[in-house]
Amino acid sequence: MEAALETRIRELAEELSRTEPVTWRRPAVALGRRQLGSLDGRPALRSALFRFVDAAPACRGPFDRGAHLRAFVREVDGERVPLALRPLRGPAAVGPLLAAYGLASGPATALLARQFIAGRDVKDATRTLRAMWRHGQAFALDLLGESTVSEAEAQAYFKRCAETLRVLADAAREWPEQPLLDADHHGRLARANLSIKLTALTPLLRPLAPERGAADAARRLWPLLQLARELGAHVHLDMEDYDSRETLLLAFEGVLASEEFREAPSVGVVVQAYLRDADETLERILSSPSLTQRAIPPTIRLVKGAYWDHESVIAGQRGWQAPVWAEKRESDACFERLTRRLIDARDSVRPAIATHNLRSLAHAIAYLERCGGERRELELQVLRGLGDDLAEGISRLGYRVRIYTPIGDLVAGMAYLVRRLLENSSNEGFLLRQRHQSLDELLRPPA
Ligand SMILES: Cc1cc2nc3c(=O)[nH]c(=O)nc-3n(C[C@H](O)[C@H](O)[C@H](O)COP(=O)(O)OP(=O)(O)OC[C@H]3O[C@@H](n4cnc5c(N)ncnc54)[C@H](O)[C@@H]3O)c2cc1C
């Protein structure tokens, strides 16, 4: 049985990796590809970037963020700094002006950021989203920005989310019918799909008092869900660091327990397989009445988790055992275990497998096939800028692909951009291994 599954994984991976690169459609991708490889084997530069990602949330506005990035990168001696991160020279007075045009860290950063970010705001991104839709790709829009430290910032984020939902729902109504993107085995799928960060909806997030943060976030989550219900849109709560997870789940379960959300809107959450307690978290979600006993089943996006270094460092500093697995293969094995659990539960939820790892992706498809599932019962998700080629391959196989598409000020998106650069150059990461290893090595089962 397992041998047949492995054979099918191999066939699917070969098929997926045969996709023609999308570079011809997006010239910035060509530059990005070269830049993305430029952090390989450069520990000092990587650690400078980690420091920037830590400092970014505390920066006062885009120019401050640009200045911090430049300062950290300048401290790196003896390593060639990639074009995309090279500080722009010029008199200090022009700084704010450059920042306004998203050029505070140099034009190459702006160009590279374009590969990941679809526009300054939703209006700016609408053309791109429509083109993706016509090309057969759905989207999950993400509003860039880091965690909120004041009431005013939380309110501003709430307003941006509400405005984005309105513009999206209005624009998407006119788009042509796409049967694979418009419906699955549970029925109609919302076209307007917004991913939100709970940490941006409240400044009161404290890991030791999750109820307090959850109650405050609920004040803004509630009207957002009401608006999504009115517009027929989908709202997805992204998962962030471990400290915020309980607050997020409490807020979501609490708000959705209200009778007024029993029928709609369509909602979703994320499970991170790099957490040692990921199996329990998925079971908690699958047995949560407010999440699963709804007219529209929730979408559960399975990811490995984007904060591995952060979680490991914080736990080390506190002398605690890290909440994340210590070895990559443990995260990969957990991801496959949860993929199967989610696919088995597809009668009550909408499984969405989000990964750029060919093995993890092919495993999900092969397992669905083995269970006799139909293609429309599984959604596959990738990130704009990293998973574009894979998205083409997924569509060619006849599966629905959703591209996680950030929008926002290019400089505000720098922390996001740097995370993607780091992810792409991590020794353990599939994207780096793909540049150096054979398909046999890449497809070895995680034991
Ligand atoms: C559409 C989409 C949406 C996403 N949404 C979220 C989200 O809401 N929240 C979130 O946290 N992330 C999110 N991510 C990012 C995701 O968690 C991963 O960081 C990213 O996809 C890389 O994982 P991979 O399977 O693609 O690649 P792989 O290279 O196979 O896996 C890399 C991942 O393995 C894990 N890892 C690395 N080193 C080790 C180690 N030594 N020990 C144990 N585990 C290790 C980490 O999680 C790392 O990100 C999303 C990704 C996608 C594609």
Task: Give the SSE layout.
Elements: H1 2-17, H2 27-36, H3 43-55, H4 61-74, H5 95-100, H6 107-116, H7 122-134, E1 138-143, H8 151-173, H9 179-182, E2 183-184, E3 187-188, E4 193-196, H10 210-231, E5 234-237, H11 242-256, E6 266-272, H12 278-286, H13 289-292, E7 299-303, H14 308-318, H15 328-344, E8 350-354, H16 358-370, E9 379-383, H17 388-396, E10 400-407, H18 414-425, H19 430-436, H20 439-442
Parallel strand pairs: 1-4, 1-10, 4-5, 5-6, 6-7, 7-8, 8-9, 9-10
Antiparallel strand pairs: 2-3
Flavin-adenine dinucleotide is lined by residues 238-239, 270, 272, 274, 303-308, 324-328, 330-331, 354-357, 360, 381-383, 404, 423, 428-430.
Please give a structural write-up.
This protein has 447 residues and is α/β, with parallel strands linked by helices. It has two domains: 23-117 and 411-447, no CATH class; 118-409, TIM Barrel. The protein is built from 20 helices and ten strands. The strands form two sheets. Strands 1-4-5-6-7-8-9-10 form an eight-stranded parallel β-barrel, surrounded by six helices. A two-stranded antiparallel ribbon has the order 2-3. Bound molecules: flavin-adenine dinucleotide (FAD). Residues 238-239, 270, 272, 274, 303-308, 324-328, 330-331, 354-357, 360, 381-383, 404, 423, 428-430 line the site of flavin-adenine dinucleotide. Flavin-adenine dinucleotide is lined by residues 238-239, 270, 272, 274, 303-308, 324-328, 330-331, 354-357, 360, 381-383, 404, 423, 428-430.
